[in-house]
Amino acid sequence: MQQLMDAPMTPDAQRERVQAVYVRLNAAYGPLRAPPGDDPLAELIGTILSQSTTDSNSGRAYARLRALYPSWEEVLDAPEDEIYAAIKPAGLGRMKAPRIKQTLREVLRRRGELKLDFLGELPLADAKRWLTSLDGIGLKTAACVLLFALGRPALPVDTHVHRVSRRLGLIAPRVSAERAHDQLEAALEPEQVYTFHVAMIRHGRRVCHAQRPACAACVLRELCEYAAAQHAQ
Ligand code: SF4
Fold this sequence. Notes:
The chain is 61% helix and 0% strand. It is mainly α. It folds into two domains: 2-33 and 156-232, Helix-hairpin-Helix base-excision DNA repair enzymes (C-terminal) (Endonuclease Iii, domain 2, Orthogonal Bundle); 40-149, Hypothetical protein, domain 2 (Endonuclease III, domain 1). The protein starts with a helix and ends with a helix. The model is unreliable at 1-7 (pLDDT under 50). Residues 164, 167-168, 207-208, 213-215, 218, 220-221, 224, 226-227 line the site of iron/sulfur cluster.
């Protein structure tokens, strides 16, 4: 392991580390199966609502929005203040309400309909490019849409995946979450992406906390650069 940790971060070395971590995560949290996909436009709007809030708050906001406006056409036609009131449980409504309207408007302008199913047929890189060219949509949101709604092997890197990956040494210390998407995704097999994403989030929430990670109880301890550095002190 020491040799592995001292190795320069070539793509092969990175892949070896990611695969070693994947095996242990899968044993600890797996097997994980992706639930059936949803409407990709619903996933996109739901992911906008989920920014900077809890799953339960964004879920309530989404349910209220769809109860008031069952179709995306109705959401697009609704006054912004009404959307703001509907999505209030998700917070940041003054930012999210116009973003939702703008996103729907742009999808309709480009596609002629309020549907994103066509993304399932595009090469993965093109599908990511299409989504991230929408105003305010980053790689994480694009990957959520592609992975959860369409079952594509795109890896969302949220704060947990980023923090745990950095501590383990799966990415270099200064690699941003944005850049980590491509690096981690390339080190995984397509069928490993969903499990890796979900297991890393669970691990970040339950064990590798932002403050005081529980290294003594961690199944990844022997693979971890952070733990090795703590031990060496
Ligand atoms: S050993 Fe500690 S720092 Fe490393 S992954 Fe586990 S909990 Fe996180």
